[in-house]
Structures are given as C-alpha cells and as structure tokens.
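input
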Amino acid sequence: HDFVGAVALGTRALHLQPKSSYALGVLVDANIELGRYADARSALQRMLDARPDLSSYSRASYLFELEGRIPAARRALQAAVSSGAPARENTAWAQVQLGNLDFNHGSPAAAAADYSAALRTDHGFVTALAAQAKLDAALGHYTLAAATYRTVVARYPLPAYVIGLGDVYRVSGHPRAAAR
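output
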C-alpha cells in the first residue's frame, strides 16, 4: 500500500518504456488509491490508447464506478470481457466483476447471468461460485447458497467465504452450523 512509492516507480518505468501499459496500470491504480483522479484519468487514457484490453478496460470500469458513472462502468467491463484474455480465468474474473457491479446496483437478474457466464467460461471458477452463493443468499435461497458456499469453502477457505457460509447458516436458523 505504498501508493506514493508506486507512483514514483511507475513514473520511472515510463521514462524507461514510455508506452508500457504495465507502468501505466501502476500509475492508474496508485493514483486512484491516492484520490488523484485527474492523474488516474490521464494515465488511464494513455493506457487505453496503448493497449485497449481487459486490464485497461477493467481499470476504466473501476474509475467510472467511483465517479458514479455506472452505465459507463458497465460498458467498460463488457469491453473487458469482449477483449478476451490469454487465460479463461481472466475473462471469467471480468465477468464476475460485471456481475458484482450489477449486484451492487440493484440488478440481481443481470448479476446471475454474469456469474453464469463466468462459470461457462471457466467451469468451477471459485470466485464465480462464491459470488453466486452471495447472490442466492441475498435472494433468500439459503439452502442453495449454503451448498454452494460449502463447495467454495472446501476448495478455498478464505475468511470472506467462511463468513458468508456462517451468515447463511445463521439467517436460515442453523446457529450451531453458523458457530462451527
């Protein structure tokens, strides 16, 4: 989280390779975290010009969402998905991010479609499974949410996933399972 240092390193890297999309990505991320949105926008535009791909479009989406420009954020994530990636997991990740954007902004049906698309892209992608479990829980489908969370936790027991499973157990009337 040394964002000031990251800006310095990203700037130095750009002096060595002026069109490096990796260095530009560092500058976008660090400037966003520092609240320097104008600098982030400038680096992002250079990144998009140099290499319009999943990495640059997903960063654009994040910046647009922070600015409250949700339709633009959604379009940028759709472009990220469409741009493809060398690994299916990367495309599936972008599809999950699109689902999270839809979920967070009141479109559960669209989120479900996005999570399903991610699972078609990369069957068993744990991040997509966890997102689907969270959506099922939000919709009150606790039995399905718990089953999916159990699958996720068995494969990748991140605290957020274990907590999600415990929350589902708690709200569905299974306090012992929740405590466990």
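quick obs: The two ends are 34 Å apart (CA to CA).
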